[in-house]
Amino acid sequence: MRLLPRPSLAFAIAATLACLLGAACSRSDSAVATSAAPAKPRVALVMKSLANEFFGTMAAGAKAHQRDHAAGYDLIVNGIKNETDLGEQVSLVEQMVAMRVDAIVIAPADSKALVPVLKRAAAAGIAIINIDNRLDPAALKDAGLAVPFVGPDNRAGAVAVGRIVAARLAPGDAVAIIEGIPTADNGRQRRLGFEDAIKEAKLKLVSTQSGQWEMERASTVASALLNAHADLKAIFCGNDNMALGAVAAIRAAGREGRVLVAGFDNIKAVQPLLASGAVIATADQHADRLAVFGIEVALVALKTKQTADRATPVDVVTR
């Protein structure tokens, strides 16, 4: 029987080298493809007071959205201790600039004070999206900064809430407003909306004071109002935290059922008061979606370099 000749040693070595080189090329191609894959954009959400349930709900909604879109972007969530910590919020923005995030979605604690640091962030190539509380247009113009606003019409929402309360009152009845921080645009717009409803119903506005968005401060203000105005029939509050404070003051004064209260935000803590009638109405601006709307605008801006304002819903909630 004739045996077939064995392959030469040279041929075997050549075949082995070709195989190894092929594998190496394969691995190299894969490495190039992996290194060429674009990095996910990092979006920073900078909120106001984390002690406010509204912003806790906002943060939870943003985190849930990121989990559902984990392949699309990374999210950094932070906020300040209370509504008046302007310096801390400025510091947070500076930290995000140092971290070189791609976009900042911010609910500014003040409509003017945050503009300079946001200008520095924009100069660093970071996309800026303004949510919740509108930055002051004049301050933005002076800074040469264009920032889209994503949020509800606070004045229209306050008018709608105010009308619900006004329908329970008679012309000439004494009412008061506890507004938020006066330098915050959303606080001003809600005050103006309440004033629109008060004038429309021919009610008598006896006082407007700031509760700084906080429950304890609003309770103190409401107590003083109740002492100064025995005929007070209603208190319009710029947010639900302050409405909670007003309800506490009314209860302490023994005037439950005689002084109506309105709020804004529809946080969970106010819902039992809506059910009992201690709070007549509030406005739901959908905290769980508000930051998400801003994030969506930021992601579009990073892809297209184009931005535009986006109106978000606000709905009246009653018993």
What is the rounded distance between the termini? 102 Å
Radius of gyration: 28 Å
Instruction: Report the mean per-residue pLDDT as an integer.
Output: 90
Assigned CATH class of the largest domain: Alpha Beta
Number of strands: 12
Query: What's the domain count?
Result: 2
Give the strand line-up of the largest sheet: 2-1-3-4-5-11
Dominant shape: elongated
What's the number of helices?
11
Major sheet details: 6 strands, parallel
Q: Estimate what percentage of residues fall within beta strands.
A: 15-25%
The helix-strand sequence is: HEHEHEHEHEHEHEHEHEHEHEE
Structural class: alpha/beta
**CATH architecture annotation of the largest domain:** 3-Layer(aba) Sandwich
- The residue ranges in which pLDDT falls below 50 over 5 or more consecutive positions are 1-36
CATH superfamily of the largest domain: Response regulator
| Proportion in helices | 40-55%
Please explain how this structure is put together.
The protein is an alpha/beta fold and 319 residues long. Helices cover 48% and strands 18% of the residues. The chain contains eleven helices and twelve strands. The strands form three sheets. A six-stranded parallel beta sheet has the order 2-1-3-4-5-11, with helices on both faces. The chain has a four-stranded parallel beta sheet with strand order 7-6-8-9, sandwiched between helices. The chain is elongated. Residues 1-36 have low confidence and may be disordered.
